[in-house]
Amino acid sequence: MDNLKRLEEKRVGLYQQYAKENKSATLFLIIAVLTGLPGFFLNQIFLIILGIIFFVVAIVFFGRAQKHSTTFKAIVKAEIVTEILKEQFDDVSYEPKNHISIPRIVQTGMVKRPDRYTGEDLIMGSYKGIKFEVSDIDLKERVETRDSKGNVTVSYQTYFKGRWYVYTYERQFKEQLKIIEGRGFGINTKGLVKLDVESIEFNKKFAIYASSQEFGFYLITSSMIEKLMELEKLHRGSILYYYVGNELHIGVNDRRDYMELSIKTPINEESLKTFMSDIDLIPAIINELRLDSSKFKNTL
């Protein structure tokens, strides 16, 4: 990329400001502790108030440091991500603050309905004639815990955090197929039959459910099993697949934030390798699962 040097100069400038604000924040936090704690133990109101003031000042400096980090991330997403995507895909668009619709994800029956959620980095485009949508998703459920005295504490715990993919091909299948690694995330298998394949290793890792055995084995060939095992190795955490209509949904629950660069990391070809691999996964799935093959095209 031609603009790496210019972006690195921007990063260095922002990082210097970030480090300065962070250093000031840490200093004021230490002073807050050194004044506030003795005041608390000695019951000296003046020292306690002084400690609180220094603590507030530290928070302000931490906030200013975080602002520089946020500015850097915005620059990366506006310039680096957009350029890479345009080089690789057709009709591509990128919305850093948007995500795939949560009701659409829940409707698949592959995850339970969240009580809270967030999402970002929505990418839409096409590759080899296959349309795709990809975004980061974080789904949380409400959890109540009760202590020995009967007091109830409410928290929101993440049960899915990772990437959600939707691929759209030509052919409309009337049946559905679900392939789940591990325990799943509240998956609905009502009306589906469970299948086993010849690969013992695959059966240990994945559970397969289809609307019929015929449809399940029509899609799950020995070649597909091999490709699914290869894709599984590319992802940490657990992964699920759902073929329905003319769409393939893929959820990767690996507790990762994709396409992120730290303000502390120099921008160069080496540091962009992991960043690039996050984007390369999009066409890799199309290629490995052969979504552009005749099986997924309309038949005359």
Please characterize this protein's 3D structure:
This protein has 300 residues and is of the alpha+beta class. It has two domains: 1-88; 92-296, no CATH class. It has helices at residues 4-42, 45-88, 102-106, 200-205, 213-219, 222-234, 272-288; strands at residues 90-95, 116-127, 130-146, 152-181, 193-195, 206-210, 238-253. The chain is globular. The relative contact order is 0.13.
- The total beta strand count reads 7
* Strand proportion: 25-35%
Please indicate the count of domains: 2
Q: Give, in order, the helices and strands.
A: HHEHEEEEHEHHEH
Q: Major sheet, described briefly?
A: 7 strands, antiparallel
**How far apart, in Å, are the first and last alpha carbons?**
44 Å
Task: List its salient traits.
alpha+beta; globular; 30% strand; 2 domains; 300 residues; 7 helices; single chain; seven-stranded antiparallel sheet
Question: SSE layout and pairings?
Answer:
Layout: H1 4-42, H2 45-88, E1 90-95, H3 102-106, E2 116-127, E3 130-146, E4 152-181, E5 193-195, H4 200-205, E6 206-210, H5 213-219, H6 222-234, E7 238-253, H7 272-288
Antiparallel strand pairs: 1-2, 2-3, 3-4, 4-6, 4-7, 5-6
Helix pairs in contact: 1-2
Summarize the structure.
With 300 residues, the chain is an alpha+beta fold.
